[in-house]
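Weekly structure sync, notes
Attendees: PL (lead), two postdocs, one rotation student
Agenda item 3: pending single-chain targets
PL asked that the sequence for the first pending target be pasted directly into the notes so everyone works from the same version. It is reproduced below exactly as submitted, 310 residues in total.
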Amino acid sequence: MTNNSEYDSPWKEALEIYFQEFIQFFFPQAYEDIDWNRPYETLDQELQQLAQDATLGKRLADKLVKVWLKTGIETIVIIHIEIQGEYESNFAQRMFIYNYRIYDKFYQKNTEVISLAVLGDESQTWKPTRYNYDRWGFSMTMEFPVVKLLDYKLEELEAENNPFAIIVAAHLKTKSTKKNPQGRLQQKFNLIKKLYEKGYQKQDILRLFRLIDWMMVLPEELTQNFKQQLADYEEEKKVPYITSIERLGMEKGEIGMLKESIIELLEFKFSSIPEELKNTINNLDEITVLKQLFRQAMAVSSLEEFQELL
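Predicted structure, written out during the meeting:
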């Protein structure tokens, strides 16, 4: 992997949550052949161990998964997925190296290793699909299917219900609004509205919002504008999913600060306080109670008085 921030990218998280939908959206033939009634197994830790030379290129995500086919013959398929964010001259060679390393590690009877690639770069012409070399009558060739995100049309994506249609749309709109923050603000808000209009469940709305918010970063001065638009929209539609979660997060932060402030104030006034009292304060989670206790901590003249109020 290149670094932790790229490895923990929104694409990586999306693959973790929506692997089946990923295959269905990008590689429908594979989706039809896989037996989804049998649980698939993620092998990402093994992939990291094999990827010792992963120092080139900007990778958005990669994944290794063991699946079963629908065929009568028991066949295990190891799917190796690369999501590449930028042009890389030796990308096809790297695909080949990973493929044979994975095959060498997991080889057993009736096991296949299939490498799939998704390209998220901005080049209209770069689309590597094979690696080969030959000499003295010997020939080695590996071909692999490639999906190019630039090939997707936004109007077609908007007609899809697969979550990866939303993710690809967010990717394309992020690329197209690099120098247009106001345009990104509007595009981001429109995408979030689509989540509600398409009838996604609350859990999926929150997940996809996190991914879109992660990808379509706004300048600080526009972030508050976006939050206000979103709050107004959710209030109008009576679906306070995202804003209620954010409000809860802010409240939790305030609760933590109040606890610290009460303890620090008491220690400042009375030199030290019993550990039992600290634990009692830290176990309180009602924000109105903590605010009242903070005011009382300022007013009391003794620790005993505060303990009686508590």
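Discussion points:
- The mean pLDDT is 83.
- The first strand starts at residue 41 and ends at 42.
Action: rotation student to compare against the earlier draft before next sync.
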